[in-house]
Write a structure and sequence with these properties.
Elements (H helix, E strand, L loop, with lengths): L2 H16 L8 H26 L2 E2 L15 E2 L1 H16 L16 H14 L3 H8 L29 E5 L13 H5 L14 H6 L12 H6 E3 L5 E2 L2 E2 L12 E3 L25 E5 H14 L3 H14 L12 H15 L6 H6 L1
Antiparallel strand pairs: 1-2, 3-8, 4-7, 5-6
């Protein structure tokens, strides 16, 4: 979590220093390469400052051994650099790429992360001004009708996805995703390194849908002992966990339609080519709802939060007329349910 972002920063700095002097190639392509490098550098520093606070800020390629040893900069300076890079990247990156180049950073991705950087530094006006354009033309982001379509291979790079990490089932090249195998239970050759606690299992059941059913996000996120529950093409009751006090296992991002996690789609061991969606449109809606709430614009926050609640088949009008405190409590609750196993919860709790 510390070394890998700095490796990416080193590579980005190499590009930023050397691409302008590379002979040949169009100026437009070079400008795009530089914008992508800034996006990835900002993404790396976002992860670093978010986890470690004061860190070394390195914006050039070391020329001597003494250049390796850089003192920490205050986290405020890191956040400013993150925002600067995302802002400059957004000014150049395209709205979309061709199907052959899908997965490369876009203008929408840069703005979404710039908005998130403003959110994490409590710049509510900047959150609103940065993210609101993503809800209108020329951007075409929308919520998927089926929440679960965001976490299976068959519906990758969909209309809700703003930035996702592309994986392929190719052994030995570092392009594969091992998270499904890490979390899968032992019966399907998994390591069972993470599991949902009863807190989230119970939280999903606190509010029923408008039809009196369980929240559909619960079925997309978790698997447990309900009638007809199948997991890796076998009844859920076939599985035994090392922690029998917990009632569920993860379904989100698992290749639960396979027989096992030991063989990927191309026959390689322990490989998954299911992309990780690291920034989705629902996150933009939730960030806008939070910023408006913190500004006291609760009615405007309702218009964003109600879209997330409607997709979950919950009463979309429930938060109409909420106080600022009630709205913030509901935003926290919906973030907990919407983003299980997506690396948001820890940072939301700390904020």
């Amino acid at each position: 979590l510390f070394q890998t972002p700095y490796r990416l920063i080193f590579r980005a700095n190499q590009l930023l220093e050397n691409v302008p002097d590379v002979p040949g190639g169009s100026a437009e392509k070079k400008e795009l390469y530089l914008a992508e490098a800034k996006f990835l550098r900002a993404y790396s520093y976002f992860m670093l400052v978010n986890n470690f606070g004061d860190i070394p800020l390195i914006l050039s390629v070391p020329q001597t051994t003494s250049d390796y040893f850089v003192k920490q900069s205050p986290k405020e300076e890191i956040w400013e650099q993150v925002k600067k890079d995302f802002q400059e990247a957004s000014a150049v990156l395209p709205l979309s790429w061709s199907s052959e180049e899908v997965g490369r950073a876009t203008k929408g991705a840069a703005l979404a992360y710039l908005g998130k950087a403003h959110l994490y530094t409590e710049k509510w006006d900047e959150v609103i001004s940065t993210l609101t354009p993503l809800t209108t033309s020329p951007y075409t982001y929308e919520l998927m009708e089926n929440f679960g379509d965001n976490f299976v291979k068959e519906t990758e790079n969909n209309k809700e996805s703003i930035f996702e990490i592309q994986f392929q089932d190719i052994a030995g090249l570092g392009l594969t995703n091992y998270s499904a195998q890490n979390i899968a239970p032992a019966e399907v050759k998994g390591w069972f390194e993470a599991f949902p606690t009863n807190k989230i299992f119970n939280a999903f059941q606190e509010e029923k849908t408008v039809d009196g059913e369980l929240d559909p996000r619960m079925y997309a996120t978790l698997i447990w002992d309900y009638e007809g529950a199948m997991y890796y093409n076998r009844p859920f009751t076939d599985f035994k966990t090392p922690f029998p006090q917990y009632k569920a296992m993860f379904k989100k991002y698992q290749n639960y339609n396979q027989d096992t996690e030991s063989i990927g789609s191309a026959g390689n061991n322990y490989n998954s080519d299911n992309n990780e969606r690291v920034m989705r449109y629902d996150h933009v809606l939730m960030m806008l709802a939070e910023a408006h709430t913190m500004k006291g614009n609760v009615a405007q926050a309702h218009t964003y939060l109600s879209q997330v609640r409607k997709r979950a088949s919950l009463d979309e009008n429930k938060t109409s007329g909420y106080s600022q405190q009630q709205m913030m409590e509901e935003i926290r609750r919906q973030c907990m349910l919407e983003f299980v196993r997506e690396a948001h919860r820890f940072y939301d709790l700390r904020r």
